[in-house]
Amino acid sequence: MTTEHIAPGTVTRRFTGQAMPRKEDARLLKAQGEFGDDTPVAHLAYVAFVRSPYAHARIAAIDVSGAEQAPGYLGCLVPDEVETLTDPYLELQGPPGDAEVDRCLASGGIARFAGEPVVAVAAETREAARDAAEAVVVEYEPLPHVVDAREAVQPDAPLVHEPVGTNVAFDSLYDWGDIDFAMDNADHVIEVDELHFHRFSSTPLECGAITVEYDAGVDTFTFTGGFATPQLATLNLSVALRHPFSKLRVLSKDIGGSFGLKLNMHIPATAAALLSRKLGRPMRWTETRTEHHQAGGHGNERWFRDVRMAVQRDGTVLGLTYDALDDVGAYTRYEPLGGVIWTQVANACYQLKHLKVHYRSVYTNKGPVHPNRGYSRMQHLWLVERMMDIAAHKLGFDPVEFRTRNYVQPEQYPYTTVNGCVYDSGDLPLSLRKALDLIDYRGARELQERLSGSGKRIGIGIGSTLDSGTNNLGQARLINGELPFSGNTEGGLVRLGADGTVYATTGGVAFGQGHETTIAQVVADMLGVAYDEVQVQRGSDSALSAQTGMSGSYASQFAVTGIGAILNATKKLAHEINLVAASALGCTPDDITLVDGHAVVADDPDRALPFSAVAGIVHFSPADLPPEVADEVGLVGRAVYRAPFEIPDTERKYGNLTLTYATQVHACVVEIDEETGHTRLLRYAMVDDCGTPINPMVIEGQVHGATVHGISAALYEHLSYDAEGQLVAGNFYDYHAATAYDLPSFRYDNVVSPSPFAPVGAKGMGEGGGAPLHALSAAFQDAVGDRAMVLDSCNPPERVLRLLRGLDAERVRVIR
Amino acid sequence: MTIDHTAETREITVTVDGRSETGHVSDRTLLVHWLRDALDKRGPKIGCDTGNCGACTVRWDDTLVKSCMVLAAQADGDEVETAAALEGEDGSLNRLQRCFADYHALQCGYCTSGMLMTATDLLSSGEEITEESVRRGMKGNICRCTGYHNIVKAVRAAAGQEVPAPHGCAAQEVESR
C-alpha cells in the first residue's frame, strides 16, 4: 500500500503529545514482568557453553567423558555435529568476506576469540550444566592471533579466517565532491595522524536469555527471548536448522534492554535448538555477565588515520578526508553494514561539500561487534565533531561561532548531503544556544578563569550530533549489489474484540522504549476512545501478521515506522467501524465520527452506537448487516507503513539512506583534578529535537539514558584486550558502568522541528548519536588548550593525566 | 539445626514476602536462584553475577542484600522480602512505586525491583534525603536505560520533596495523571 500521511488536524490529539504515564509500568513495578529467564517451563533443562580460553586456536580434541559422569548431565553438542546439522546463516557481504562461515560453535573447529563457544552442554539444573561444562576437556592448539586492526591489515598478519584470504572483510572508497580541489585550494589544512574510537557496549542489564521448546506433535520450535528482529531471526534459524520457516515461532515478552546488541540472538539460539531436538527437552540458555561481555556483542571500534580537514580563512569548513579501519572482531554478524550505515550522517551536522573516506572492515581475534546504540554513525559523528573542535583550537576560532557558522542552517532544510541523504528538519543554532544557556556558558568561562592555577581545571565542551532514523535497507546494496533489500516497512494490527475492546499489536519489539504507551496514545486519539481502553500486546510474536520481514527495533525508527503502521491499521479499522455503524444507524459512513467510544452521526449526536454494539453486530449478529458490509468487515485493521525510499545509486554510492534526522546538542562543564586526573561533571545539558513529540516524558527519558551511555563510555567503559587477546573488562568490576553517584543532575530542553516526511512529524530518536562522547572530548580539549590533543574517545583519569602533560600535541599539524 | 552431611540437599524454611516457604536446596544454591527458580519470585533479577549491579537486591531480615551474594541455606529460618511485597494489599502501587511511574524512573524495568528495594531501605533509614544522599545511596544499583536522573527524582518525590515534573507535564498534573 502507499504511505499514509496523517495530516495534523485530522485527528483530535487528546493523548498524542502528552506525557502519558506508561502502560508498561504497573507490572514492572510490581515485579510481575516476564523477562527471558523468568518464565517457568515444565521439564526445562539448562544449557551452558564451554568457551575458548584462547584468542585463536585449533580445536585438536574434545573429551566429554568427564561431563558424562556429572550428576544431571543430559547431553552435549560439539562443533563437528554443528557442521553436519546446520547450514551457514544468511550473510550480507560479497567477496571476499562471504567466504567466512559463522556457526553457533567454533566454525571449522577453530576458535577465533577468547570466549567463543566451543561445546554446548545440557543438564537438569543451571548448576549441573555448569559443572558438566567444567568437566569437558578441550585440547587446543594455539594459533597466532591479532588484536589490533592496524596490525591485522599488514600483509604478514595472522588470518582470522583462512578461506577469506585477508583480514579485510569489506573495502570501499567513498568519494563525494572534489576533495583534492578542496585540499589544494583551502586557506588552511589541518592534518591528524590518527584518532581512535574505542570499543564499548551498552551492556543491557538483562544479558541474553533464550528458551527453546520443540513440539514434536507439530514439528515446531518456539523460541522465547530477546529477539530484536524476529522475522530475520526466524529466517536465519530456518536456514541454519534446515527447518521450515513455517515451523518456527519467535516470541518475546519483556526484554531487559537490547540497544541493538540483541539482533544476533539467533546464533546461540541455534545451539539451544539443536540440543532441544536431540534431547527431547525444552532448553534454556541464560547468558552470564562475563559471557555477555565476551561474546554478546561489542560496539564498533574504529581507527581514523591520515585525517585532513580543509578550512577557509573565514572559518568555513570545506571538507574532510580520512582512512577508516573498523575493527569488527572475529565475525561479521551484522557487518559489514556498518561500512555503509555511517554514510547516513556523512555530513554530520555541517555543510561539508567534499568528503572522501577509504573504509575497511577488519577482522581481529576479538569479540564480534553487533549494532550498538548509535551504531556506526556515532563513530563518524565523533570524528567530524572532533575535527571541528581541533580545527577551532588550532586556527584560533571560537568553538561556538565556528560550529554555528558551519551547521546546516534552519532555512536550508530539506538539506541534501554530499551523498544524497536528505536531512529533514532541525534548528541546530537554536539548539546550541539553548544548551549553552542551560550550562550558563558565560558563567562557566568565568569559573574557568577563576579556578586557573588552583589545581582544579575547568573544561567546557560542546557535542553536536544526529540520530538518523528509519533506514533505507537499500543501503545494503552498497556493500553487496546482489542483496534483495530496499526501503523499509513495519506492520501493525488493530482490531475490535467481541465486546468492543480495542486491541493493538505492533511488529516492533520493545525493550524499554514504551511502545505500549505511545501506541495507545495514537490509537486512542484516532478511534476516540480513552487511553486506558486500548489494549496493547506486550512483546512480539512472529506468528501474528503484525510483523513484516523488516520488523523489529533498530535504527531509531519506531516513532516513524511502528507508529505509522499502527495509524494505517487504525484507519482501516475506523473505516470498518464506520461501515457497520452507518448501516445500523441509517446514514452514510462519511456521516460517522468516532467520539468517546461511540460511533456517532456527526450532525445528529443522539444517534450513536457504542463500540460494544458495533462489535456485537459483527461478531454475533452479522445477519443484521447488509451482505456487502458483512462480507467486508472483520473489525481487523492490518497495515504496513512503507517509508518512501528509492534504491540508492550503487555506482556513485548516492541516495537517501534514512528518513528522519533527530538532532541533539550537548554542552558540559567538567572539573579536572590536576593531581589525579579525575573528572567531575559540574554541569551537563542536552537539547534534543526529534520533531513532534508523541510522549515528551518518554523522549526525555531516552535522552537521559543515551546521555549516560555516552558519558560512561567517554570516561569509564572500555572493552579492551591485552596482547594475548584476553578481554580485560569481563564484568562490572573491570567494566565500570556509570552509577548514580558518578553523575550530575541533567539540564534538559528541547526544540521541535517537525519532520515533513514522517507520519505524525515525529522522528526516531532512541539511539541519541553519542553526543556525550563528542562533548566530553571537547571539554578535555578545552581544558588543555592546544598543549595536548584529544585523539581518543575514552579518557579515564590515567589518560587525562597524560593529556595534562601534553599527550599527542605533535600528532596534529596545521600544514597550511 | 542438625545437618545431614550425607544428603545432596538440605531443607530450608524461609518466610518470603510474608509466606512460609519450605524447600530443598543444595549447599551452593544462591538465594537469588532459589527465589526465582523454586518460588517464581520475579523481583530479584540477575544482571552481573558479581554483586555489582544490584538487580537482585532483597531485604534479608533487617539487612538489604544482593541475593546473588547469599546462599539460600544462609536464609534458613529468616525472613526475606522481595519487591513483590511492596504493593498495597489491594494490589495498588505504594507511594514509592507511584513516584517511579509518575517521574518515569523505569524503562525496560529490569533493574527496577532492585532499585525499589534499595530506595525503600534508604527512605526508612532516617538519613536525610538530598540529591547527593540519594545518588550515594543508590550507587550499588546499575540502570542502563534511565541515566538515573528520573530515579533520583522519584526517590526524592517519595520522600515528599518537590522535584521538577517530567518534560511535557505541568507540576500539578504529575500525580493526577
Automatic annotation (TrEMBL), chain A:
<feature type="domain" description="Aldehyde oxidase/xanthine dehydrogenase a/b hammerhead">
    <location>
        <begin position="30"/>
        <end position="144"/>
    </location>
</feature>
<dbReference type="InterPro" id="IPR000674">
    <property type="entry name" value="Ald_Oxase/Xan_DH_a/b"/>
</dbReference>
<dbReference type="InterPro" id="IPR046867">
    <property type="entry name" value="AldOxase/xan_DH_MoCoBD2"/>
</dbReference>
<dbReference type="Pfam" id="PF01315">
    <property type="entry name" value="Ald_Xan_dh_C"/>
</dbReference>
<dbReference type="InterPro" id="IPR016208">
    <property type="entry name" value="Ald_Oxase/xanthine_DH-like"/>
</dbReference>
<dbReference type="GO" id="GO:0005506">
    <property type="term" value="F:iron ion binding"/>
</dbReference>
<keyword id="KW-0500">Molybdenum</keyword>
<dbReference type="InterPro" id="IPR037165">
    <property type="entry name" value="AldOxase/xan_DH_Mopterin-bd_sf"/>
</dbReference>
<protein>
    <submittedName>
        <fullName>Xanthine dehydrogenase family protein</fullName>
    </submittedName>
</protein>
<dbReference type="GO" id="GO:0016491">
    <property type="term" value="F:oxidoreductase activity"/>
</dbReference>
<dbReference type="InterPro" id="IPR008274">
    <property type="entry name" value="AldOxase/xan_DH_MoCoBD1"/>
</dbReference>
<keyword id="KW-0560">Oxidoreductase</keyword>
<dbReference type="Pfam" id="PF02738">
    <property type="entry name" value="MoCoBD_1"/>
</dbReference>
<dbReference type="InterPro" id="IPR036856">
    <property type="entry name" value="Ald_Oxase/Xan_DH_a/b_sf"/>
</dbReference>
<dbReference type="Pfam" id="PF20256">
    <property type="entry name" value="MoCoBD_2"/>
</dbReference>
Automatic annotation (TrEMBL), chain B:
<feature type="domain" description="[2Fe-2S]-binding">
    <location>
        <begin position="85"/>
        <end position="156"/>
    </location>
</feature>
<keyword id="KW-0408">Iron</keyword>
<dbReference type="InterPro" id="IPR012675">
    <property type="entry name" value="Beta-grasp_dom_sf"/>
</dbReference>
<dbReference type="InterPro" id="IPR002888">
    <property type="entry name" value="2Fe-2S-bd"/>
</dbReference>
<keyword id="KW-0411">Iron-sulfur</keyword>
<dbReference type="GO" id="GO:0046872">
    <property type="term" value="F:metal ion binding"/>
</dbReference>
<feature type="domain" description="2Fe-2S ferredoxin-type">
    <location>
        <begin position="14"/>
        <end position="78"/>
    </location>
</feature>
<dbReference type="InterPro" id="IPR036010">
    <property type="entry name" value="2Fe-2S_ferredoxin-like_sf"/>
</dbReference>
<dbReference type="InterPro" id="IPR001041">
    <property type="entry name" value="2Fe-2S_ferredoxin-type"/>
</dbReference>
<dbReference type="GO" id="GO:0051537">
    <property type="term" value="F:2 iron, 2 sulfur cluster binding"/>
</dbReference>
<dbReference type="InterPro" id="IPR051452">
    <property type="entry name" value="Diverse_Oxidoreductases"/>
</dbReference>
<dbReference type="GO" id="GO:0016491">
    <property type="term" value="F:oxidoreductase activity"/>
</dbReference>
<keyword id="KW-0560">Oxidoreductase</keyword>
<dbReference type="Pfam" id="PF01799">
    <property type="entry name" value="Fer2_2"/>
</dbReference>
<dbReference type="InterPro" id="IPR036884">
    <property type="entry name" value="2Fe-2S-bd_dom_sf"/>
</dbReference>
<dbReference type="InterPro" id="IPR006058">
    <property type="entry name" value="2Fe2S_fd_BS"/>
</dbReference>
<dbReference type="Pfam" id="PF00111">
    <property type="entry name" value="Fer2"/>
</dbReference>
<protein>
    <submittedName>
        <fullName>(2Fe-2S)-binding protein</fullName>
    </submittedName>
</protein>
<keyword id="KW-0001">2Fe-2S</keyword>
<keyword id="KW-0479">Metal-binding</keyword>
